[in-house]
Amino acid sequence: xxxxxxxxxxxxxxxxxxxxxxxxxxxxxxxxxxxxxxxxxxxxxxxxxxxxxxxxxxxxxxxxxxxxxxxxxxxxxxxxxxxxxxxxxxxxxxxxxxxxxxxxxxxxxxxxxxxxxxxxxxxxxxxxxxxxxxxxxxxxxxxxxxxxxxxxxxxxxxxxxxxxxxxxxxxxxxxxxxxxxxxxxxxxxxxxxxxxxxxxxxxxxxxxxxxxxxxxxxxxxxxxxxxxxxxxxxxxxxxxxxxxxxxxxxxxxxxxxxxxxxxxxxxxxxxxxxxxxxxxxxxxxxxxxxxxxxxxxxxxxxxxxxxxxxxxxxxxxxxxxxxxxxxxxxxxxxxxxxxxxxxxxxxxxxxxxxxxxxxxxxxxxxxxxxxxxxxxxxxxxxxxxxxxxxxxxxxxxxxxxxxxxxxxxxxxxxxxxxxxxxxxxxxxxxxxxxxxxxxxxxxxxxxxxxx
Amino acid sequence: xxxxxxxxxxxxxxxxxxxxxxxxxxxxxxxxxxxxxxxxxxxxxxxxxxxxxxxxxxxxxxxxxxxxxxxxxxxxxxxxxxxxxxxxxxxxxxxxxxxxxxxxxxxxxxxxxxxxxxxxxxxxxxxxxxxxxxxxxxxxxxxxxxxxxxxxxxxxxxxxxxxxxxxxxxxxxxxxxxxxxxxxxxxxxxxxxxxxxxxxxxxxxxxxxxxxxxxxxxxxxxxxxxxxxxxxxxxxxxxxxxxxxxxxxxxxxxxxxxxxxxxxxxxxxxxxxxxxxxxxxxxxxxxxxxxxxxxxxxxxxxxxxxxxxxxxxxxxxxxxxxxxxxxxxxxxxxxxxxxxxxxxxxxxxxxxxxxxxxxxxxxxxxxxxxxxxxxxxxxxxxxxxxxxxxxxxxxxxxxxxxxxxxxxxxxxxxxxxxxxxxxxxxxxxxxxxxxxxxxxxxxxxxxxxxx
Lengths: 451, 451
Prior knowledge:
- The structure is a homodimer.
- In chain A, strands 9-8-18-19 form a four-stranded mixed β-sheet.
- Among the domains of chain A are: 2-27 and 217-295 and 402-450, 3-Layer(bba) Sandwich (FAD/NAD(P)-binding domain), CATH 3.50.50.60; 108-190, de novo design (two linked rop proteins) (Up-down Bundle).
- Helix content of chain A is 31%, strand content 21%.
- By secondary structure, chain A is of the alpha+beta class.
């Protein structure tokens, strides 16, 4: 839709062939009554009808510096609100640590910083780093570390108010006389899980402020669609992509009837997983890259539930992490304070957990998410119901979540056929990447026509 | 209002004497047409009329664990949304560092973590901490530090994608070939400003998720007021607080006429700064604590502006910091993506900067905020207009922002007079503190009546 919109603005005439009834692809928001068809199952969303009860089954957050996407939101009047990645009230759970009990995130962050600051200040004061630090540096870095880790006057770390107070996550002791005991350094570093988890929200794509459209991610798809609707042919399943003497010929089925469309150029944004099974005239090199392009086997499941996470645990939005297959639990960032909300009970990025998830029936996925989720939130069993899942490897016309191979040949056109999509960008898996890739294709076409 | 609401629920009859036309005190949101009267000036808010163009002149954020306040929001149907403290696209500015140029927050965070991880891993590998760490610990902590600081394979820190790419905060180089150069450790630790700023959003009261009511903080005051409106006497300025044989007598002026009210108990929530000038029968100890209770001289100023921070710098909500008197610049957390927004051009916590701010005329405050703000955002001069300020030390019936002394005597009643307010809580300056203090007073009354 980006290429059609922008090429039209440049004076080109465009036709968008959309395989389904509505454009947007993996930008998909599921609400009451929506149907999720996979290659071997069909589910109907049984959420209550309510503007705040939605499930962003594909992309669900926008980095603040994804400025082309955000520029379209601004231009189209798509309202935005904050998406929280790092909620210090959320949980971190490893089956192998702390007796399998989840730990409130604030404790992990506070105690990791506290231990690092304690050890580094010790090393500094033992003159272990005198080759690196001047006497003035040492004084300054100690002052910084005291604040960084909330060390006491003796540069010890004996816990911090940053880590909260016992029971606070439940009912809130207001006395605050006694701080929660700090986690032992050893417990914070033994597993890969603990070693890596505190870095996540520092990544450039995951730093605050993260954003989401008010009302669901598909507000963006619908806003684009409205602007290209006259050029859009829905329910058009491409069956052949051919080269002609001076251009391209696309053959597609629409409502059972084969149709052909001749054009100067084709910009093909079909995922490689789907494209590899469409009859084409591509070069051997292009075919090979398409055939071997890897995609993440990501999946999600969502439940409607009483907001026990807010009401009982002061968790407003954000993400809990676990070493179990479900990987993450997402709390809704919208409708805060309402009675019901949509809890994402699993967000599996891919790997064997994603393949397993895709291999399960919808009911098996529900059972698994509830069983694993109850290790973080026992309430999930009684409260979370009407689960609906999506396994992107099994969604027709997608057959995968996002590209994970490094593109090369597909960045260059095959005669008059150009390729675009998130999988061909430096931001794979992000909507901004799809836009950047569209711009790349547009640039190539404009350059050719200007030559 | 909390005491009246809850005591009424317990069967008591209550009367609220409110000095102004509307209850809520420092919970105050300023919109188009509102008037801010200080003891020696009057301003009219010239913002455009728009639901998203408001200025929370008092409290402006709610910690996620302030569960009594949030419980009332839930009960009253006050909608909530996320408030951002820590926006990595915001700026950190010291007049004495980096040539006076503001630094994008992501760089400070990434490079501080990077340098700390580099130095600690060096010390660990030089066996400087072998008395603290086992061989296994050393392997694990190095793995953790690589992630913590984004170190390279040689455990060096040469900058990180977490710090962004040159120009990204402006127009976004999408090539990402070259990372921004890291800041030198020395530059990150020389001043108290840099030593302390990265700790702010880790504090228990400032951790994510932070919240704000949709539409302005006074949605909470209005929701309370609706529920106690039958017991509320507005425009009632208390002039005397007296003890009687079996209770209390309050004398107040209303519309120029003195009135007296006899009751079993008084719960006095008048700020100490105001209370010390009201005729009373308090004990000498209570009088002394009231007379000497200190308050923060906090103030804020807000401007209506084009959202240049979003459109030109990808800053959506959050706070920039500076060593200048204005201390902070707050970007609106609501109406993201809209054309205009309310920029808080200064939030001064108190101290000499707060006293100076209070001593200035409204126009002097505007001039100062624009001059200082332009060192972070040159656009502020042409874009930010219609400034309106509030200096809490000069707001009638408040005469201060929040209590800063440790309460003692005022926690105990003076015969039938009980005291409450944020200044008497463990959460001074927070609305949750005012509620906790109200509960304390209620508990004392209920206990006495149960004796």
